[in-house]
Design a protein that fits this description.
about 300 residues, four-stranded mixed β-sheet, about 20% helix, elongated
Amino acid sequence: MKLVLGIVIDEDSKYTNTDKTSYDILGFALLDLDTLFLSFVEKDGSTDKFKHDISIIASSLKIYEKYKKYIIPNGRLINRGYLLSSIVDGIESQDIPSRCESLPIYTKKLDLFTVVGAETMCFNLYPHGSLTYNCRSNKLDVYVKDTCDSFTWLSYLSDTNHKINIKTLSMVSSPFDDTYVYGDCCWIVNCFSKSVVVPENIKRLVVYSSKIGDLVLPKSLEYIYIVSISHSPIKTYYLSKDAKLSLVCLLINILSNDSGEDGKNTYFLFEEETSSLFDRKDYEKIWEICHEDRFKSYLDRVLSQANIVVY
């Protein structure tokens, strides 16, 4: 699988005058997500290649297809010091693209010429994850994405059809069917099993579009996020007696949302009291709120509807 990563210029086309230095744009650099090797695709006709080659993930860097030159204004900085020019109907125009916070620029030999903006690029990973790539160190990482993580401005895959699927990454292992692991992150996707044991040492877990009988959670788990396709996607949760406070609070929140109490005033009040606290990861305060008398009967009802086994 290859990802459109940056633009390729012809360093031999350098032109300098009193106002600017410019280079011709030749095409795009593609990153192979398996080998981390770069390859080149010409700009002309590349749109068709992106559309028809399912092995190429066309990020929003495609907006650069119309541009002819990479321009560095001399003696002043404009939007981090670069412009791109295009010629439409014989008229040259210069733009300051704003959609990408990072733009790696490579030479014809695919050596890194410069990086405009952040060195680390972040792409959406399906489901509920992020893939980051550092242009200078050539390092690739995969993460489970917190709902409160600020990745929106770094998301280069705006088209949902072109999100990177966790299943396609060779760097991700699959110890069990429908289970994908990278480092201390785990994704369970489209799983319909009677029992699933989350591997030891996993700290962050996503359960997506699944229906599971027994879900055994390790004591190492700190974060859980469930996207359900039905009411009560997990029949029984197995929770360690040494479970992290963050996990317990997140699980209470999940069970609250799944309880059928969402039309009642106490539910709205509980959500209002805890929403910003979850964003700040203030789990000690959330735990205090859970023990307040005003929420006792509500949370008793929520927990009575769930099957939780402490081991």
